[in-house]
Amino acid sequence: MEILALIILTIGSLASLKSRKLGIFACIFASLLVFKLNSFLAMIVLIAILNLASLTLLKWKSHLTLPILMLIATLHAFQSNDLAVLIVCLIVSSVPTYVLIFLSNGLKPETAVKYITFMVLATVLMILGLINMDNFIGQLLFIIGLALEVGIAPLHLWVPDVFEEGDATSVSVIASLAKFVPFLIAFRFLNINTLTFILLYALSVTSMFVGNIGALTSKKPERILAYSTIANMGYVTSTLTAMNPIGFAGAFIQLLANSFGKIGYFTALKDGANRVQTYILSFSLIGIPPLLGFWGKFFIITSLLQSNLIPLAIILIINSAISIPYYIRLANMYERGKNLLVSAIVTVCVIASLIIYPTPIYEGVINWIH
Predict the structure, then answer these.
(1) Domain map of the chain by residue range?
(2) Which member of 96, 103, 247, 292 lies 3.0 to 4.6 Å from 242 by CB, making a disulfide possible if both were Cys?
(3) What is the pTM for the complete model shown?
């Protein structure tokens, strides 16, 4: 089935030169052909489809297979325990973002080079760390690589510039689908000892405060979304200090909420969105119950409390409160648009953020753990 999927993907890539719709359908069919999806993995498929749909707003056509390649790598990573396979999945899920960001209109060449340099360095450090995970140096290299890869403060220097200058739809892929595999590998292979615990604790706290304070002091929606992503990476990183199943579930639900929020907001930069939509996206990212973002933070906080990490749980709650003003301000920055595709993408992101019964998703993550 894998060979058939690759054949269909190749045909879809060629078909996309003539017809975008044929390329899209071929890519989606190929990606789903070889995987058995639970509710959680189905949500990742939805994220990839939204990424693909938003990229059709761009003029150049050679991008169509890139998010699907990332999707296949992500799904395969969730269904494999082999280190070599996971390293390949990490590379395949990361490299397409280089192309997406390099082809962004208006992006300064030095910013594109900075992004690719950081990403290559991050991947190399993560791989070196994985093959030396039995000692502290290997764990340190992996954590540094992870922080560079997903944008955890203080190793977040590429995030604000790339998010501001890059094309909104290309950036939405980086802010959503590209985040899953690095954290998946971290949950699978990172060994937590006293030193790594202290480092991860410090990184999560730093990323929360740097992200939220940076967003509070930013005026452009792109930079607000950039710093919001940095804060969200801090929330997810905090679960690595607890390393328990409910924390894993919370981390990936938070990644889902972050993905739908960022895809919705970045796509809306193309044409706009109505206030009801933007407020729902903001409320989910804040963590207002019973929206999807609330459940991510709820499970994360519960996991921290179960591990007796009460100060870290309090810091997370404080940072969620800090985020309220800038998310409300962000929601008011958008005006209603007329593009039907943009409206459809934003609407799907809003509907996904309205999920108030996360049990199937939670069980999907827990089943993956076991």
Answers:
(1) 65-369
(2) 247
(3) 0.91
Helices 310-331 and 221-242: crossing angle in degrees, nearest 10, is 160
Please give the Cα distance from 356 to 348 (Å, whole number). 15
Of 38, 30, 22, 24, the residue nearest 5 (C-alpha): 30
Most distant CA pair in the chain, distance: 58
Residue labelled with tokens 């591990």: 307
Locate 287 and state its tokens: 């963590």
Measured between alpha carbons, how far is 126 from 132 in angstroms, rounded to an integer?
10
Radius of gyration of the chain (CA): 19
The pLDDT tens digits of the residues spanning 161-203 come to 999 988 898 899 999 999 999 999 999 999 889 999 999 999 9
Using a 10 angstrom Cβ sphere, with 0-12 exposed, 13-18 middle and 19 or more buried, the burial of residue 213 is middle
Cα–Cα separations (whole angstroms), residue 53 to 47, 108, 294: 10, 25, 27
Please state, as a whole number, how many other Cβ atoms lie within 10 Å of the Cβ of residue 325: 12
Q: What is the DSSP string of 176-240?
A: TGGGHHHHHHHHHHPPP-HHHHHHHHHHHHHHHHHHHHHHHT--SHHHHHHHHHHHHHHHHHHHH
pLDDT digits (tens, 9 = 90+) for 85-139: 999 999 999 999 988 887 776 677 788 888 999 999 999 999 999 999 989 999 9
Rounding to the nearest 10 degrees, give the CA dihedral for residues 87, 88, 91, 93. Answer: -110
Phi and psi, residue 176, nearest 5°: -125, -85
Tokens standing for residue 213: 């304070």
Is 44 in contact with 50 (CB distance < 8 Å)?
A: no
Residue 36 has pLDDT above 80, yes or no: no
Assess contact for 338 and 281: CB atoms under 8 A.
no
* Residue 17 backbone phi and psi in degrees, to 5: -70, -25
Give the Cα separation of 48 and 124 in Å (integer): 25
Contact 116, 107 (CB under 8 A): no
